[in-house]
Write a structure and sequence with these properties.
244 residues, alpha/beta, Carbamate kinase, 9 helices
Length: 244
């Protein structure tokens, strides 16, 4: 689906939103900030009201980071599984906030835990989306050594999303680190090949390669700017579009 910017019609019919665990921590840096949850839920509700089908892949870095634990001496696979469990905690918290905002939701976990979430089944996930439910994908890919960025790319390809929206602390991809370089400028759009050539850290390499191979565009934007998610979905000049 496409639409002209400013038309008021969504540019995408089905999206995957990649939300980091760190974003849920807000300014406190650890755990879950209820105010952030409420704000994210409000933004998702506004996009859902446009008729857009929304899937969310949630990270767990606000609770536990597998890579950091591995660097500290823990076996990498064990650390990654612990990180996946952290994403389930975040998914349940986000589900609660979304339902309080009036949305119907389903949490689908790549690691089976039927007491709190449905197991991830591709066709079931698509059916939930078609019924207008917000689907939250938890536990990453279900496999160690893969990030939640890769989970977002994988789930996006599996459910036929038209774009992966990567919500970060920065409002797009820049020529240099905007926190360190005053003359850094934001790319409105850039090709996958250009991003690789310029060594721009859009996503981790596996996720980036998967999106490129599946011709699945990525939009990098900040979740901390009010209304940014809706502007992205409406096709307005927000963030950076990475495309084939």
């Amino acid at each position: 689906m496409t639409a002209d910017a400013g038309s008021g019609r969504p540019a995408y019919r089905r999206i995957v939103l990649k939300l980091s665990g760190e974003a849920l921590a807000g300014s406190q840096g650890y755990g879950i900030d209820p105010l952030v949850l409420d704000r994210v839920a409000s933004e998702v509700r506004d996009v859902s009201a446009l008729g857009v089908q929304i899937a969310i892949v949630i990270g767990g870095g606000n609770i536990f980071r597998g890579i950091a634990a591995s660097a500290g001496g823990m076996e990498r696979a064990t650390a990654d599984y612990m990180g996946m469990l952290a994403t389930v905690i975040n998914a349940l918290a986000l589900q609660d906030a979304l339902e309080k905002a009036g949305l119907q939701t389903r949490v689908l976990s790549a690691i089976e835990m039927r007491a709190v979430a449905e197991p991830y089944i591709r066709r079931r996930a698509i059916r939930h989306l078609e019924k207008g439910r917000v689907v939250i994908f938890a536990a990453g890919t279900g496999n160690p050594f893969f990030t939640t960025d890769t989970a977002a790319a994988l789930r996006g390809a599996e459910v036929g999303a038209e774009i992966v929206l990567k919500a970060t602390k920065v409002d797009g991809v820049y020529t240099a680190d905007p926190n360190k370089h005053d003359d850094a400028t934001r790319y409105a759009n850039i090709s996958f090949d250009e991003a690789i050539a310029k060594n721009l850290q859009v996503m981790d390499a596996t996720a980036f390669a998967l999106c490129r191979d599946q011709k699945l565009p990525i939009k990098v934007f900040t979740i901390f700017k009010p209304g940014a998610l809706k502007r992205v979905v409406l096709g307005e000049d927000e963030g950076t579009l990475v495309h084939v």
